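Incident log, structure service

09:12 report received: a user says their structure output differs between two submissions of the same chain.
09:20 pulled the input from the user's history:
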Amino acid sequence: MHHHVFTQPSVSEITQPTALTLRLPDSVSDLLVLSTMSNPLVEFVVSQVEHKQTTLILRVQPFLTFAFEHTPTNIKTPTQPRFVGQGIKLYPSMGVAPRVCIEQLRNGVTINIHADGDVHFSVSAEARFELVTLENDLRILSEPQALVMAKAILGRKFDYDEPSTMLAVHISELEQVRRELRDYLRGESGKIHPGVSTELLKLDHLLQNKHQWLLRTYHQSLERSNLGRSSNEQFFNNEQLQRKLDCFELLAPKDVSEMVNKLCDDDL
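09:34 re-ran on a clean worker, output below:
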């Protein structure tokens, strides 16, 4: 169901109590994470279990990094037991501000895993995230393509120092995504879930802000070649101009030079 938000599955073998730590890199935009808070961050499916060894199929959100490390077995937090063929997902907790979840992801969120015939998953009590079994997952959301594209372009970091031609391409792409969002809202009016409709309107507002910023940067790139200089600054070399003037005075007839000098005196 969430094939458009997860990476390709990977297989991990757990032979002793292990902690999986998810982190959000500094290079990832908060806008991208903000728009994905309704989706699971990681999904586990138990492939094999034999005593204290297990094989897991793992899928994570592509903007997250993860690492495994061995941990002691004295974990006191409640665990969610899973067996072969069963799975579990990690969601942001309901009723928690997204910025709090994003801040925790920056610092790292740890999932403890150990096997003893079953596979047990747990997160710390301080974590603003919760584990939800697949069969009890009521948050499943099949997102429309327009919503997926809007999130993708919001998560992209633009280089505002690019040439004006590339900025124009980015602006056109952003306008196209906004147009597709509005067309989807009009075409599916009254048919889509109110929560999805609200999220579409929020994304359209964020896209509008990004469009205005790109448009402003584009106009600035056309008005001045260097943002460190004013738009009406003259670019010339005084020494080079003086050399040209001396050459004209040497080559021009005497009466022409006298006429030019007289015109300059009249202007003063």
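09:41 both user submissions now match this output. Likely a transient worker issue. Closing.
09:42 reviewer note: The chain has two domains: 8-134, 143-220. The beta strands are 10-14, 18-23, 42-50, 53-60, 65-70, 80-82, 87-92, 109-115, 119-123, 129-133.
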